[in-house]
Amino acid sequence: MLLFLTSQNSPSSDAIMHILAERRIPAFRFNFDMFNSYEFYWNDEYFEIINPVKAHCKSNEISIMTYYHARMTIDQTIQNMELYQGESKWIISWLNHLHDCLVAWGHDSNKLRLFTTAGAAYSKTYQMAKAKKYFSVPGYYLHWGRNLPHHDVIAKTLTQRPFSSGATMYAKITDQGDLSPEWPWFTQEIADGDRDATVLYINGHIHSYQFATVRGELTDWRVTQGTDRNKWIPWEPGRDFERKIDAYMKELGLKYGRLDFIIGGREPQFLEVNPCGQFGWLDDKKLTLHNEVVDAILDQSSTIER
């Protein structure tokens, strides 16, 4: 059996489960944000999960384990939140620790496939330090407590958590001299180029795309998600560049990831790699990429090494 840890509102997870069903591969989906619809028991010998329709998943029956966007944000909505008397953040923190325990079990059992979360092992600074061996990387700074000289940079964030107002911080050109020294900042030199590009890496297979239009005043393509402006077209970076992608991912020990670049200048500028990055909007109606992800999950070569 394949154990798939995920969340309820994930179209890519829906597509993966659909493909597994079409291939008649036994799979059990555990949605962390619906945890109280399941029964769960784990002792020092085994664990068992029972879903809302009373299907069972026992640890001794699991041959493959994978996960995709299962870990929750601290403000995420969980089913029947009113049961917890205002302690939903405590519940989410507890469940995220359970998530890490299950992933560690899969890793230690040599059953964990393809996806890896970011966290400390693949922090932004670590990614960029390793990337310098293969790509051009714009200079970056993490800072607070000092006034910096006036100079235009890209202001970014280390966390995906929104502000208390619900607003999200997107990448934006700003004068670093105007930034408040009381706040922690992650800034980066403005990359040489005029277009966003992204590379999807699936267990050694490389798919490259570029944003359909040049950046102009747009400094973060994510603001176009859900609109007709979010259009991507194939990008042919060349075999030498693809070899660098493969070597970089192998050095990091990643079987999957979505790498972001700025192109259009002298050479592609590396921004980051997301070890569990979303990819659904890049796929076609035949779900070619989702099928390739399922192929990789079922391929023993995608096992995350201990």
Question: What can you see in these coordinates?
Answer:
The chain has three domains: 2-108, no CATH class; 120-136 and 191-275, D-amino Acid Aminotransferase, Chain A, domain 1 (2-Layer Sandwich), CATH 3.30.470.20; 140-188, no CATH class. The two termini are 21 Å apart. The protein has helices spanning 11-22, 88-108, 124-131, 239-252, 288-298, and strands at 2-6, 27-31, 39-42, 47-50, 56-58, 64-67, 140-143, 152-156, 172-175, 185-188, 193-202, 205-211, 232-234, 256-264, 269-274. The chain has a five-stranded antiparallel beta sheet with strand order 13-12-11-14-15. A four-stranded antiparallel beta sheet has the order 7-10-8-9, with no helix packed on it. The chain is of the alpha+beta class and 306 residues long. It has five helices and 15 strands. The radius of gyration is 21 Å and the shape is globular.
